[in-house]
Amino acid sequence: MKIFSNFLSVLFICFLFINNSRAATFTSIAGGDFDLPETWDVGGGMTPGAMDDVIIKHNVFVDLTSKKTIKSLSLINDAVLFSGLEIRGTDSLVVSNNVQATSTNSIGNVHLKVIESTTFIINGDCNFLRVTGNTSDAYLTFVLENTSKTFIKGLLEFDYQGSGSSEGIKEIIVRGSALLDVEGETRFRNSAGHDFNVGLYGAGKVILRDSLTLMLTGTGAEAGITLHDSSDLQLLSSVYIFNSSTTGGDYAKLRVREASSNLYIQDDVYLESVGAKVKLQVEGTEGVMSIGGDIVMNASAQDEAIINIIEQGEIKLGGNILRQTDFGKLSMGDDGALVFNGSEPQTIPQSKLAGSGDDSLFFGKIILENTSLLPMVLTEDLLIQDSLILRNGNLQTSELAKVILEDSATISGSSTAYIEGPVRKLGSTGGQNLTIPIGTSSMYAPITITAITSASSDVTFHYASEPPPFGVEELGIGVDSVSTNAGSWKIEKNASTGLLDVTLNWEDSSDAGVTDIDDVVVVGWDGTEWVDYGQESSGVEGAGGYVTSIASEPPPFGVEEFMLGFNSSGALLPVELKRFKATPESGRVKLEWKTVSEINAKVFVVERSADGVHFETIHFVDSKGAISTPAQYSTTDRSPIFGWNYYRLRMIDNDGSFDYSPIEVVKFKDNGSILAYPNPVREVLYIQDTEWIEEEVRIEIYDRNSTRIMEKVIELNRAPFHLAIAGIHEFPSGYYIVKITGKAGSKFVNFVIAE
After folding, report:
1. What is the Cα–Cα distance from 735 to 753, expressed in whole angstroms?
2. pLDDT at 3 over 50
3. Per-residue model confidence (pLDDT) at position 19
4. Does residue 17 surpass a pLDDT of 80?
C-alpha cells in the first residue's frame, strides 16, 4: 500500500510539472483569428489555452463554437493603429483571472467587443485605464451587442485620465438585448480631458450588484450614464455621484432619457458637488427611475445638485429627499411626476432653505402611493404647480403646513388616499368643478365646488368629523333636522372667489342618519341658524352618497360651515316622480325612472351635462298619457362622456310647462393603462393599451356632443394593442373621447385636436 501511495504522489508531481511547463504568455504579433498560431509569438503551432496569459496589441477576433478558457487577458495600444478583441459566435469565453485594457498616449484605439450570442465570463476584475496625460484622439471602449451576455465576478473599473479634444464616442455601450452583469463594485472616474459616457440602447440591460461610483474630478469634462429607448439598468446597492471638476459647467449625471427605459436603484443615491454640478434626470415617454432609499444632496452652492423630471418621466422614491446643506434643487416640467411610494412614512421636504438663493424644490406633479398605515406628514406648506394625485396613503396637513394648489392645479384622491387637514386653493379651477379629497384619520368626506374663474381667488377647505359646537338646534325655514354624525365642512374664501355651489359626500348613510336620499339637503350656518340651500341633485354611492346645493341659489359669501340637513317636504313636479336613477353598465349608462301619476304629462326629455350646469338633450321619451297609476320608463346613453356625467329629466306638460327631476351623476374614470398621444394631436393619433388582453375590441371616437365620428373593430389575439389613426386633422379642433369596449367592459380616455 505504501508503494502505491508513493506512486500516486510522484504521478501528481509529474502532472503539475507538465501543466506548469505548458503555461505561457501569448502576445499578438499580428491582427486576425485568435485560433491561428501565426497570430501569436509562441512557436510550435500553439494557440492560447486555459493556463495561458494573453496580451493583445492588434485587432484580434475569436469565433466561438465551443467553450474556450484562458488565464488572463490584457489589451493595449502600444504603438499600433488599432488593437482589441472582438468576441463572437455561439459559445463562451472564460477568463479565469483579470481583464486589463490600457490606452497609452498612442494614435491607436483599444476596444473589447462582445457580440452575437456569445457568453463572456470574467472570474476576476475588469479594468479599463486611459493613462494620465493621454492627449490623443484614440478611444477606449467596451461594447456589448446583440444577445450577448457578459458576467464579471469581480469589480468593473473605468479610470479615464485623459483624452484628445475631439473624442466624442461613448466609452461603454450596451444595446440590442445584450446583458452586462457585475457582481463586484463598479467605479467610473473621469479626471482629465474629454467626456466619459456610458450608454444603454434598445433592450440593453445592465445589472450592477454592488455599489456604483460615478466621479468627475480634476479637468474631466463630463461623466454620465444615460438610458435610451427601452433599456434597463438595475443597481442593487447604493449610488454615489461626485463632481469637483474645474472644467466648464458640465455634469456628473445619471439620466433616463428616452421612452420606456427603466432605472432601478435598490438603496440610496448620494449627489455630492464641490464647486461643480451633479444631476439626476428623467425624461421621455414612460421613462422611470425607481429609488428604494433616499436621495441625499450635498452641494456647496446653488444650482450644483439638481433633480430634473421633465416630459412624461417619473421618479419613484421609496425614501426621502435630504439636503445636507442649504442647497439642492428639484426642477419639474411638462407631465413629469415625483412618486412617493415607500412602505414606511415619508416626509415631503421643505421647498426652500435659508441661504439657498434660487435653489428650491419645485413641486409640479406629485403622486402619493405610500403603503404605510401611517400618514405622510407635512412640515411646511406644499405648493403644487400642476397636480397632486393621491393613490395610496393619507397626507396629514395643519394650519402651519397646508397643501396649496396654485392657479389651475388639480388634486385627486379616494377613500384610501386623501388629506387629513386643511387644503388651500389659489386662482381658477381651469373651467372645471373641483373635488377636494379631505377627511379625518377615520372618515373620508370630500367636498366638491363649482368652477372658479378668478385668478385672484383664495379658498381654504376644512373637514371635522364632529358638528360645530354652536346653534345645532337653530333650524331655518324648511329644515327639519341636521345630521349630528356626518361631520361638518368649512370653506373660507375671499371676495374674488364669488358664489360656489357645494356637493357634500358621506361614506356611510346609516352613520350619517340618511334614510331617504330625496330628503337630504345642504344646509349652511349664517351666524344664527342653519339655512336650507336645497338639493339640486343627490345620489347613492355604495354605502354612502352625496348631495349638491341648488344651482340657482348658491350659498352666499360668508356662509362657511356646511352640514347635511333633512327636509321631508319634497318638491312639486308636473309629473309625480317616484324615482330617477342612472346606472353605469359596460361603458353605457342605463337611465330608469318611475312615476306615481301623469295626469297632464306629454314627454320626458333626458338631458346630460359634463359640468352639472350646461345641459344638452340626448333622448325624448313619450309619456304614457293621462294615467293615475304607476309607470316605468328606461333608455340608454350609449356614449357617455369621459369623466363626470350629470343626468336629469325635463318633464313637459301638455300646456308646455315643465319641471326638472333631481340630478343623477355617473363618473367614468380614466384607465392608467390606456394612452392617447400626442395630446393635443394634429396629424396622427396613437392609441395603446398595455394591460388589456382580449380577443377583440371595438374602438370608437366621439366628439363633445357625443356624436360618433369613427368606429373600428380590431383583433387582439389576446395581446396588448397599439393603433395609429391617420388623418385626424380632418376633424374640427376641440375635445374628443376614445371609447374602447371589450368583453370585460369599456374604458375611456380623452384627447384634444389642435387647431
Report:
1. 7
2. no
3. 44
4. no
Q: What is the CA radius of gyration of the chain?
A: 35
Number of residues assigned to the chain? 755
Among candidates 234, 241, 250, 132, which has minimal Cα distance to 187? 241
For CA atoms 304, 309, 314, 318, give the dihedral sign: positive
Asked if the bond preceding 678 is cis, omega within 30° of 0, the reply is: yes
Grade residue 282 by pLDDT with cuts at 50, 70 and 90. very high
Closest CA to 221 of 161, 279, 262, 272: 161
Residue 22, number of CB atoms within 10 A of its CB: 12
User: Helix (H, G, I), strand (E, B), or coil: what is residue 37?
Assistant: helix
Residue with cell 395630446: 679
N-term to C-term CA, the chain: 99
Contact 348, 377 (CB under 8 A): no
Q: What is the pTM of this model?
A: 0.71
**Cβ pair 171, 231 in contact under 8 A:** no
User: Rounded to an integer, what distance in angstroms lies between the CA atom of residue 18 and that of residue 14?
Assistant: 6
The pairing of strands 59-64 and 32-33 is parallel
Does residue 326 have a pLDDT over 90?
Answer: yes
Instruction: Tell me the per-residue pLDDT of 133-189, one tens digit each, with 9 for 90 and over.
Output: 777 778 889 999 999 999 999 999 999 887 766 667 899 999 999 999 999 999 999
pLDDT digits (tens, 9 = 90+) for 614-666: 788 888 888 877 666 778 899 988 777 766 788 888 888 877 777 788 888 88
If one counts every other C-beta atom within 10 angstroms of the C-beta of residue 415, the result is 15
User: Which residue, among 288, 294, 281, 378, has the nearest Cα to 331 in the 3D structure?
Assistant: 281
3-state secondary structure (DSSP) of residue 124: coil
Q: What does the DSSP assignment read for 681-725?
A: BSS-EEEEESS---SEEEEEEEETT--EEEEEEEE-SSS-EEEEE
Task: Give the per-residue pLDDT at 193.
Answer: 80
Output the pLDDT for position 201.
94
What's the mean pLDDT when you consider all of the chain? 85
* pLDDT at residue 573 tops 50: no
Higher pLDDT, 569 or 79: 79
Distances (CA, A) of 446 to 8, 11, 490, 741: 87, 87, 12, 31
- Give the CB-side neighbour count of residue 534, counting CA atoms within 13 A: 13
Task: Report the distance separating Cα 402 and Cα 380, nearest Å.
Answer: 7
Does the pLDDT of residue 603 top 90, yes or no? no
Distance, C-alpha 476 to centroid of its chain: 49
CA neighbor of 215 nearest in space, from 250, 246, 183, 187: 187
Rounded to whole angstroms, the Cα distance separating 343 from 699 reads 38
Q: How far apart are CA 489 and CA 495, in angstroms?
A: 19
pLDDT above 80: residue 107: no
- Here the cell at position 507 is 361614506
SS3 288: strand
Contact 638, 588 (CB under 8 A): yes
Q: Cis omega before residue 680 (within 30°)?
A: yes
Could you give the CA distance from residue 241 to residue 281 in angstroms, rounded to a whole number? Answer: 13
Q: Is the bond leading into 640 cis (omega within 30 degrees of zero)?
A: no
Query: What is the C-alpha to C-alpha distance for residues 295 and 318, in angstroms, rounded to an integer?
Result: 10
CA neighbours closer than 13 Å in the CB half-sphere of residue 716: 23
